[in-house]
Amino acid sequence: MHRFVAGAVIGIVVLLLVPVVRVAPAFAGAGASDGPGGSVTVGASTGSSSGGSSGAPVPGGPGSSGGGNGTAPVCIDTVLELNNELGPPPGASLPGSWYSITCYYHSGASTTHTRWISTGKPPTAAPPVAPYAVALRAERSLHLPSPSISFNPSAWAVVNLPTWLWVDAAIWHPYAVSASVGTVTAIAVATPVSVQWTMGDGSVLSCAGPGTVYQPALAPSAQSTGCSYVFPTSSAGQPSTDGNPNDGAYTVTAAIVWEVSWTSRGAAGGGALPSLETTSTAPLRVLQIESVNG
Is the pTM of this model over 0.85? Predict the structure, then answer.
């Protein structure tokens, strides 16, 4: 007579409620070792720069199919020892085992099935892991900073006068994060490449770097910037915090564009991942100043 703990009851319920499917030995989930098929761990590093952060464990495990396009699910198969004590389903071939198979899809959905898998011999090797799928999980764990927006003139801009634009240069460096599935580790690196400025009056411009900080102690003729904008009209009539249309301000948006690349260890792979953006907004009043002739 077998002694069953609470986990045994759970195993029996799973056996009874999930339809039993007889699967050929070539079924993708049949290739895991005894016990859990694997787990994903995520860690972050930035080399010599600060930034990035460690993520929580990401669901996943050895993939049921390979390929580098990132569309294959990542699956975990686990031998159900308590179910095995009850024996195979009627007509099943031996040897074999009961498995719980959970697959995680890139949409965020997951499925779990309990199946008896007949094999010519007990599974000894894990199925291959798709390194691109691991790299995507690493990218999702990146924590990238949003820009801090600065202007000059700082209090308000003036029509037909260049307004300097810049973001905090301290965040302008690569951020890296890694994810591992079994013996495969993928490293995703996000590098800032440009700032897209949406000026609030319908104009958009792109600056290749964070911009240049304006130095009030220097003469204007002694400094220059490659990132500035000339407002052709005032912001009067735009939304204002006090409801006064004369105090209206444009909403300026800065979006840092991050290019993301990846490499892997434990399996061949590498290349580009989808680019990312981090954004911030700030109000800016633009005044129309008329000259007075004496």
Answer: no
DSSP conformation class of 25: T
- Output the CA–CA distances (angstroms, integers) from residue 156 to 36, 152, 241, in the order listed: 61, 8, 15
Structure tokens belonging to residue 89 = 């389903």
Q: What is the pLDDT of residues 92-126, one digit of tens each?
A: 777 888 888 888 887 878 888 888 887 765 555 56
Of 62, 97, 128, which residue sits at a domain end?
128
Q: Which tokens sit at 212?
A: 């240049």
| Residues 169 and 58 reside in one and the same domain | no
Nearest to 12 by CA among 104, 80, 107: 80
Counting other chains too, the contacts that 244-250 makes at CB distance below 8 Å and 24 or more residues apart are: 247/285, 248/285, 249/200, 249/283, 249/284, 249/285, 249/286, 250/199, 250/200, 250/201, 250/283, 250/284, 250/285, 250/286
Express as a percent the part of the chain with pLDDT over 70: 71
Query: In Å, how far are 29, 257, 259 from 133, measured between CA atoms?
Result: 17, 22, 18
The DSSP bridge partners found for residue 191 are 259
SS3 content of the chain, % helix, strand, coil (to 5): 15, 35, 50
Question: Are the C-beta atoms of 130 and 67 separated by less than 8 Å?
Answer: yes
The tokens for 167 are: 């973001």
Tell me whether residue 140 is in a domain.
Answer: no
Domain of 117 in residue numbering reads as 6-128
